Amino acid sequence: MGRRLAALVDSRSSWFDLGVFAAGVVVVVGAGVRSLEHDITWDWWQLLTIPMIVLIARFPMVLDNGSGGVEIAFDSSVLMFLLCMYPGPQALLLWTAGVVITQLTADKRLMVRLFNVGIGVLSGTAAALVFARVSGQDGSIAELLAVALAAACYFATDFVLSAVSVAVETRSRLKDHLFQGGTLFAVACFVPFDSLGYLGALLVRDSDAPSWTLVVLAVPLATLLTASRAATRGRENSRRFTVLFEAAVRAQELSNKDKVLEALRDDPANCCACSRSTCGSRLPDRTRSARGWSTPAHSSGSSHLDATGRAPP
To answer: Which among 46, 141, 213, 265 counts the fewest CB atoms within 10 Å?
Structure first.
């Protein structure tokens, strides 16, 4: 316990993560105060959005560059629905409840979960501010534009803060995490997916629309989530086979016994670092359910890696 506490004090990334969490707490308290001041009403069916956030967060898309990867979850589509339907503070409180429950049920270190809660709240706040500034009349083009901008702002806030945390923790260059392959593809997937929340809000507002239309909306939602899971599994399998092939080639080229043993020890460790939720193991050690980061350990010579590929503290 004392050793872990000392490691926490000495870790710069831990202080950054705690700062992000503290900022998120301040924002939530402010949203609660605003809700009380404006006497915002609450209905029980609004709480149904919370399990939706938790459910959608279970189907992320992972883009990995080897030293760290971005996990793109699409639960913020529910946030877009909340922003279209309710005042900003109320939407943010419902969103926060979903984020907190998601992290409570996640198999990650406490510090990672605190960071993920903080970054979820701050990203949601940035999206809410942009939506409030740009949004126009209900159902207008301006409102659709506001949703797109809010989604992009959410992604950018989450992405940059996560990149900073990973860069600090791994003592690597920030630009290596900001400008990795697949980022533009991630944005191209993320913003249109979040527009499903706007479509859901349109259906709920339309009093003439039959209630079963929301069930129909679940079809493209389930299809996209399944497709993102399949793409993640395919990418992970490809990377895993690549690591194994390189390990086999390397073993064939070595003639020294010590070097062969070293290769047999290091290469499986790198293969373990590729492990993701797609193969039944725990989620990456630094990920938020919506666009967080993973930082698999590459501790050469160490075989003591946990299920995320990270060397134990």
So the answer is: 141
Nearest to 123 by CA among 91, 87, 159, 89: 159
Residue 193 CB partners (closer than 8 Å, separation 6+):
74, 77, 224
Phi and psi angles of residue 62, each rounded to the nearest 5 degrees, phi first = -110, 125
Angstrom distances, CA of residue 16 to CA of 56, 100, 118, 127, 228: 27, 19, 11, 22, 30
Torsion of CA 126, 127, 133, 139, to 10 degrees: -170
Per-residue pLDDT tens over the stretch 127-146: 999 999 998 788 788 899 99
Q: Per the structure block, which two tokens stand in for 19?
A: 């700062």
Q: What strand order describes the sheet that includes 292-294? A: 61-64, 69-72, 292-294
Instruction: Tell me which CATH code domain 12-294 carries.
Output: 1.10.1760.20
Tens of pLDDT, residue by residue over 193-248, are 888 889 888 888 876 767 677 777 778 778 877 877 777 777 777 777 777 777 77
Packing angle, helices 110-134 and 88-104, rounded to 10: 160
Q: Are 235 and 66 in contact (CB under 8 A)?
A: no
Contacts of 132-136 with C-beta under 8 Å, sequence gap 24+, read 132/88
* Residue in this structure with the two tokens 């803060």, named with its chain if needed: 161
Selection from 277, 279, 278, 274 nearest residue 310 by Cα: 274
DSSP code of residue 306: -
Residue 116: how many other CB atoms lie within 10 Å: 29
Q: Cα(44)–Cα(187) distance, rounded to whole angstroms?
A: 33
The percent helix, strand, coil of the chain (3-state, each to 5) is 70, 5, 25
Unique residue bearing structure tokens 């349109």: 202
Q: Which of 124, 100, 116, 64 is nearest to 286 (CA)?
A: 116
Amino acid code (one letter) for 267: D
Phi, psi of 310 (to 5 degrees): -95, 135
